[in-house]
Specification:
Distance between the termini: 43 Å
Structural class: alpha/beta
Number of strands: 12
Helix content: 40-55%
Oligomer: single chain
Strand content: 15-25%
Number of helices: 11
Order of helices and strands: EHEHEEEEHEHEEEEHEHHHHHH
Strand order of the largest sheet: 5-2-1-6-7-8-11-12
Shape: globular
Largest sheet: 8 strands, mixed
């Protein structure tokens, strides 16, 4: 099996090392210092679970350098802000894909498949729910820092996820549980509720997740956000793992936030690094669907 990874951050390096450890031939699209580090050192996965070090990883800095008719899977693990550009580049270089190549999107947010569906058919584009924590302290090393539930692979377009089982089995064999599902939308919305309530507010206030639950004003804002998202989910024809916002808030405050009390969001980290955030794929997506379906999403605008 041959896999091309686009997006050599913590998630990307961690996933690449996972499947490479199980025999997949992994190539990486990367540029600059990251490309140099991977060429010189290979890639490593450390932290929780088994540690792996994979040498001699092919690295490409231009799409024109990537071999033709080669890859069975393409993993997209970049920031969501790069999706339009990546989808366009893949379309302009379709020769690197086989007729059977599957694209799997390992990103935050919801609806990230839309950029790829402009060029590729529904049976080629899949999404992943990743709530495992990966951190890249060095450009070629990914540390698994948090694990709560399995990585899930599926289709937002209701395509059969069975072709992805070989990928799920490889990731599981590497030590990180991974499954396929016919309900990826429900799980992605579950993550969306969590991220949309916590990420922007924690970023604006410059605090970790836990601190947000210790102030009545931040709790009030998060409650309004959660209520809005449940209404958007309902009127947009989606569903998630809880029947009501009240049911969700019970577990949100009693378990989900306490389990990640010290965590600073990826949005916060992006702001600290002075790079563009993925907020358009998080709260922005809720606003988009809310406006489309005449739902009051004013709490989102107050954070925007």
């Amino acid at each position: 099996m041959k896999i091309l990874l686009i997006g050599a951050g913590g998630v990307g390096i961690g996933l690449a090392a996972s499947v490479a450890s199980q025999g997949a031939e992994v190539s990486i699209f990367a540029r600059g210092e990251t490309a140099i580090a991977i060429r010189e050192n290979g890639i490593k996965r450390c932290g929780l679970f088994t540690h792996y070090e994979i040498k001699d990883i092919p690295v490409y800095e231009k799409y024109s350098e990537i071999p033709k008719d080669t890859f069975d899977y393409i993993f997209i693990a970049t920031k969501t802000t790069a999706n339009s550009e990546i989808a366009k580049n893949l379309n302009n270089h379709k020769e690197i894909l086989k007729d059977t190549t599957k694209i799997i999107i390992f990103q935050n947010g919801f609806g990230n498949d839309e950029a790829y569906l402009e060029y590729f058919t529904k049976d080629k584009v899949f999404s992943a729910r990743v709530i495992t924590g990966f951190q890249r302290h060095e450009r070629h090393i990914s540390e698994v820092t948090v694990y709560t539930e399995p990585i899930l692979l599926g289709s937002l377009q209701h395509e059969n996820p069975k072709p992805l089982k070989e990928i799920a089995d490889m990731i599981t064999a590497s030590g990180i549980n991974c499954n396929i599902t016919n309900e990826i939308d429900r799980y992605l919305w579950a993550k969306m509720i969590y991220n949309c309530a916590l990420n922007p507010l924690g970023t604006i206030l410059n605090v970790n997740y836990g601190k947000l639950t210790e102030n009545e004003y931040s709790i009030e804002i998060m409650d309004r956000i959660i209520d809005e998202i449940f209404e958007v989910i309902k009127v947009s024809g989606y569903s998630t793992l809880w029947n009501s916002s009240k049911e969700y808030k019970d577990i949100f405050y009693s378990k989900l936030v306490p389990d990640t009390y010290e965590h600073f969001s990826s949005t916060h980290q992006d702001i600290q690094r002075k790079i563009k955030t993925e907020i358009d794929s998080l709260n922005g997506k809720v606003i988009e669907l809310g406006e489309k379906n005449n739902v009051d999403v004013s709490a989102k605008y107050e954070q925007w």
